[in-house]
Amino acid sequence: MSSVRTRRWQGDIIILVAAVSLIICAFNAPPSISALVSSSSSQPCRPLPSGFVHLRDVDASILQEMRYATYHNFVGRPITSYLNPECILTIEAAKSLTAVQQFLMSGAADPAGAGQRYSLKVYDCYRPTDAVADFVEWAKQVNDTKMKAEFYPTLDKSDLFADGYIAYKSGHSKGSTMDLTLVPLPAQPEPAYKPGEVLHSCMAPVGTRWPDNSLDMGTGFDCFSTMAWTNDSTVTKEQHDHRYLLLDAMSNKGRFINYEQEWWHYTLENEPYPDTYFNFPVC
User: Fold this and answer.
1) How far is residue 35 from each of residues 114, 137, 170, measured CA to CA in Å?
2) Integer Cα distance of 43 and 46 in angstroms
3) CB-based burial of residue 19 (10 Å sphere; 0-12 exposed, 13-18 middle, 19+ buried)?
4) Cα distances (Å, whole numbers) of residue 9 to 3, 14, 90
5) Parallel, antiparallel, or unpaired for β 88-90 and 52-54?
6) Whole-number Å distance between alpha carbons of 193 and 185
7) Phi–psi pair at 132, nearest 5 degrees
8) What element of type H or E holds 130?
9) Which residues pair with 191 in a beta bridge?
10) CB 135 within 8 A of CB 222
11) Element (H, E) at 266
12) Cα–Cα distance between 221 and 169 in angstroms, integer?
């Protein structure tokens, strides 16, 4: 009986040692991108780092449709670390955006001289690096194409990296880059996106593509196509004029620089953190 107890005790020790070894290995192993993506969504909300603000606290009149906190984006689900649909920016970027908004709302930007007022509407602002990693992980899953019909209807998903639509780093993570559009005032309501509904190409004409309440810019937001290039020659003159209305206001009134392959993408000139990629959650 004593020898049986001894063997059982020895067996328990072996199991305990093995369990401890596994725990130590788990702590020491380098995290993969997928591990970071799966764990980062549980990050708690905490005060913003010094130098950052919620755009609402600086200018509540700027409209917000933060797509990556919703199901209406090229992935088709809320993105990691977007815990709330809030625009966060550096203080400098937010103040410069306010200057643009004041100009647009004054009616002075109306090319017809009729005093038409406009509002900015942001789709994305600061983007955590965990969210960028989520995009990268999604792009590797070439069979996940549930949003292809709207956001990249003519593009093979396997080409997203090569064509520059998905990258391992994003200027959004520095806090002074935003994606945005122009909305004529008074702003018209738009329907809520319902996951699973029939999708229409982002390159389709207004009335066919997603009914965004913005000016017709020739494509929808996040359209993976050369049609979305700011100077694309295939869009109509009216659509081109709308893009340049946004470009003129952003560059002349706010010191923002446009990324030429996305009409919606702007970065503050002389951004305060040009070499820092932040990773706190959006909330």
Assistant:
1) 55, 10, 20
2) 9
3) exposed
4) 10, 9, 60
5) antiparallel
6) 22
7) -60, -40
8) helix 129-140
9) none
10) no
11) strand 265-268
12) 20
As given in the structure block, the two tokens for residue 241 are: 């004029």
- The tens digit of pLDDT for each residue in 217-258 reads 999 999 999 999 999 999 999 999 999 999 999 999 999 999
Please tell me the distance from the alpha carbon of residue 120 to that of residue 101, in angstroms, as a whole number: 6
pTM score, two decimals?
0.85
> Mean pLDDT over all residues of the chain?
88
| Segment 50-101, tens digit of pLDDT | 999 999 999 999 999 999 999 999 999 999 999 999 999 999 999 999 999 9
Structural domains of the chain, with CATH: 31-268 (3.30.1380.10)
What value does the mean pLDDT take over residues 207-215? 96
Kindly tell me the burial class for residue 207, based on how many C-beta atoms sit within 10 Å of its own C-beta (0-12, 13-18, 19 or more): exposed
Question: Which amino acid does the sequence have at 160?
Answer: L
- Say how far apart CA 103 and CA 25 lie, in whole Å: 58
pLDDT band of residue 8 (cuts 50, 70, 90) is very low
Q: Mind listing the pLDDT tens digit for each residue in 10-57?
A: 444 433 434 434 333 333 333 333 333 333 445 678 899 999 999 999
Residue 2: exposed, middle, or buried by beta-carbon count in 10 A (0-12, 13-18, 19+)?
Answer: exposed
> What is the distance between the alpha carbons of residues 138 and 115, in angstroms, rounded to a whole number?
44
Output the CA torsion 258→262→65→122 (10° steps): 0
